[in-house]
Amino acid sequence: MIKLQVLKFMGILTIMKLGVFAVSALSLLIALTWVLVYCPVGIMKANTVIHRANVHSAGDRMKLEDYFDHYEDELNQDLKKFKADGKPVEYMEKGNKKHNNAEVVIPRKLWNDDVFDSMIHQLDHKELDGYEFLAESMNVTIYRTPKGNAGLYDYKLYATLPDASPEEIASVFLDNKYRVVWDEYVTELYVVQKNEKGPDVIYFNVDFPWPLSNR
């Protein structure tokens, strides 16, 4: 009878131990999942994560002259196509203006004159109060500052292209068709709506590495 009671007591202890182990493992799994999802700043405060990134090697950089050659070839092909179809050349400039009288509303409360004046001022004077250094690569420097307590950040980027003039930079970056040629991360870029007043509406798709979704 005593042996039977001892065996029952040992069985209860074993069940209790297994229960404590299961609860501990479940609690650890929940805590780990919460940390990975929300990344609280107080627990996972990252220091400098990148010092230099291999975005493109020197041999992969496209020369600026290639842009103008590409644009000229594309224009010549369009001219030949329109002449072969018997359409006037001015048809190319019209395009699809289904909503040409629509006006895009710009959130001026968010982007007022002070914001643009600050951007111009920062061309020669960096404003980095509260920001920490994050990464630097190929004349591009990135800083960030915590945004709330959920592990989110506001980013600020400074970049210089010493071998290109502002006009050349604008020509390369504002040419939607050519952007998908030289930028391997931009897979789609086209005008959705052209407007007589205000900026045009464009669709812009950028590939991001896993687990991030495209933007």
UniProtKB/TrEMBL annotation:
GO terms for cellular component: cytoplasm. Keywords: Membrane, Transmembrane, Transmembrane helix. InterPro entries: START-like_dom_sf, START_lipid-bd_dom, START_lipid_transfer. SUPFAM superfamilies: Bet v1-like. GO terms for molecular function: lipid binding. Pfam families: START. The chain crosses the membrane at residues 12-37. Residues 111-215 form the START domain. This is START domain-containing protein. It comes from Ciona intestinalis. The keyword Transmembrane helix applies. It comes from the Eukaryota.
